[in-house]
Fold this sequence. Notes:
This protein is of the alpha+beta class and 365 residues long. The chain has 9 helices and 15 strands. The strands form 2 sheets. The chain has a 6-stranded mixed barrel with strand order 4-14-11-13-12-15. A 6-stranded mixed sheet has the order 6-7-5-8-9-10, covered by helices on one side. Helix 2 (64-77) runs antiparallel to helix 3 (79-97). 38% of the residues are buried.
Amino acid sequence: xxxxxxKKRCFxxxxxxxxxxxxxxxxxxxxxxxxxxQDQQYMDGKLLLTSNVSYPHLSAPVNISDxxxxxxxxxxxxxxxxxxxxxxxxxxxSWINNLLDFDEFHKVGLNSYGMIGQDGYGNVHFTxxxxxxxxxxxxxxxxxxxxxxxxxxxxxxxxxxxxxIYNGALAGKGLEIAYSNSLMDNFIMEVQGSAYIDFEDxxxxxxxxxxxxxxxxYSSIGQLLVKQGEIKKEELSMQAIKDWSKNKNEEKLKQLLxxxxxxxxxxxxxxxEVKGAASVPLIANASVASDKSLIPIGSVIxxxxxxxxxxxxxxxxxxxxxxxxxxxxxxxxxxxFDLYLGIxxxxxxxxxxxxxxxxxxxxxx
Length: 365
């Protein structure tokens, strides 16, 4: 008798074999597509099945090993979420094992539903996020003076706004869990939702996970800088915002940041992995943040992703990925996905540039 562990081992070995023979060439499709109306459509969480279905000319998914690892993380970390979607995960495993094409999902009991996109033609917005590594201290110094806070325990009243927090509304309440040397690093950490903290004391990095926010709506400081003429609209990225902030004094920087009244709090976790809203460890290039009202947590998507060069430019290269929706974000609404790109400086640079369009298909029974 073959037990479950042996079956899984056989599956993973077969995946490795498949990776050797799969083509990983990428196409040069335009970012602007106008044939989505021929696809099975997915809009506002509803499936609109048409009689005339066409399938895109995509390359084979390049991240199958990462996708398989991401599914294994779901199974081990969130058995309930795994059970809710097991029929889909099992069907995709069969699709991979049998080397089926994109027009053969029906052979494993699935359909691919094309996202309608922000323009109605299938152009889905892609941004990127990552896990920063931030230098900090346990106690304040002349250089490391910007506090990172844990979640306040309010029994009455409302949380203070960002401006009120910057003006000391939380000072002296024992909520400070670290002090960084960069107000902008703290803000980026809030945008990304988590970070590894390096206290530079020889101890392992500490993961600061998302603990909650103050309840105010998120406002884009990037869009504000564009309106003010500080950054050109076509050049807007997190990297451009970071570059803008480099020669600004603390007061100038605060004047910008307080216009986003939302503020995020964190919780230190030792020996912890990067996890999203589903409390599942995230695998770079195999997980995304989505609008869960549209794409429920645990959903699998097939994404046609534009690839960026080191300078942040898209020069026609693309790749196909299987990815799982395991996170959310305050700015991630509607036909928009935030690609999780990994930990540290290099993924951070790439995430700072991502503001592009591709195509997405939701895989459903």
